[in-house]
């Protein structure tokens, strides 16, 4: 990797679509004895079956238990290489739909111990998918009636042990201080949530010094992705609350009206 790769924006030209779905996947914890593969496979299959569905893989895809980490090594009883092989097989069917891959805390822990970066291997073997271990910015181009529009996002796995909903949401909202994009994706806390900020902005087109100009309302989405681990083990032992399994689905669409012309329309559902 070149030394400036972390500042390189990941780009994806999807101009054949005017509307897509972005379904970020994280915290599947492959190899954990309490990982719910039925639920996570449902999302993977949904992405596979819909031409206009894509994903960002946002860390902690594998459990990678070690003797001195929270995951239960002796309950998982699986080697890191076997976990990696399973991940490769699971994501192979949607490899052309992965925008970007980041690294989570579990992958970080084994990287620090052994020097092996399994997410870097995954990105390379799935077809040189852009890899940003510490998080990164992406830009997706859609088009409608030959009018291209670019949607931007920032994805990072996350940090800390927030317990309340407010603390988890605030972490996602704080990413607005890091990057100026349309969509912020944060994982790690195993809690599905979506909030939005409507912000006054100057017009991005039809700006004139001779005629009245009016502010417009721009939307930003803050996404907390969910997890795919049943309520047991260290999650239960440390007093974390049970969470719904799954992840939000983001809709990116180009719309047109008289005031804004062709413009971005952002929505998210759980």
Structure in words:
With 270 residues, this protein is α/β, with parallel strands linked by helices. It has one domain: Purple Acid Phosphatase, chain A, domain 2. Helix content is 23%, strand content 29%. The chain contains seven helices and eleven strands. The protein has helices at residues 37-49, 73-76, 80-91, 105-114, 118-125, 165-174, 234-237, and strands spanning 10-13, 19-22, 53-58, 98-102, 136-144, 147-156, 183-186, 193-201, 216-224, 249-257, 261-269. It has a six-stranded mixed β-sheet, covered by helices on one side. It has a five-stranded mixed β-sheet with strand order 4-3-2-10-11, with helices on one face. The radius of gyration is 19 Å and the shape is globular. The two termini are 36 Å apart. The mean pLDDT is 91.
């Amino acid at each position: 990797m070149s030394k400036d790769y972390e500042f390189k924006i990941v780009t994806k030209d999807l101009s054949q679509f005017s509307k897509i779905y972005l379904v970020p996947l994280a915290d599947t914890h492959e190899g954990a004895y309490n990982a719910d593969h039925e639920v996570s496979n449902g999302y993977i299959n949904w992405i596979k079956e819909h031409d206009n569905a894509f994903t960002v893989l946002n860390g902690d895809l594998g459990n990678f238990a070690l003797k001195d980490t929270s995951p239960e090594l002796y309950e998982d009883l699986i080697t890191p290489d076997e976990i990696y092989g399973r991940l490769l097989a699971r994501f192979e069917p949607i490899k052309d739909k992965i925008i970007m891959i980041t690294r989570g805390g579990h992958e970080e822990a084994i990287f620090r111990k052994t020097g092996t970066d399994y997410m870097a291997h995954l990105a390379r073997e799935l077809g040189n998918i852009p890899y940003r271990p510490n998080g990164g910015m992406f830009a997706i181009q859609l088009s409608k009636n030959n009018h291209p529009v670019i949607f931007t996002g920032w994805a990072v796995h996350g940090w800390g042990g927030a317990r309340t909903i407010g603390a988890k949401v605030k972490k996602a909202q704080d990413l607005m201080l890091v990057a100026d994009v349309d969509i912020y994706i944060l994982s790690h806390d195993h809690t599905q949530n979506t909030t939005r900020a409507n912000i006054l902005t100057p017009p991005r087109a039809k700006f004139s010094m001779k005629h009245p100009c009016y502010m417009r309302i721009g939307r930003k989405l803050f996404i907390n992705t969910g997890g795919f681990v049943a309520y047991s083990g260290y999650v239960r032992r440390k007093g974390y609350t049970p969470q719904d399994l799954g992840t939000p689905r983001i809709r990116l669409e180009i719309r047109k009206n008289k005031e804004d012309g062709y413009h971005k329309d952002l929505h998210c559902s759980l």
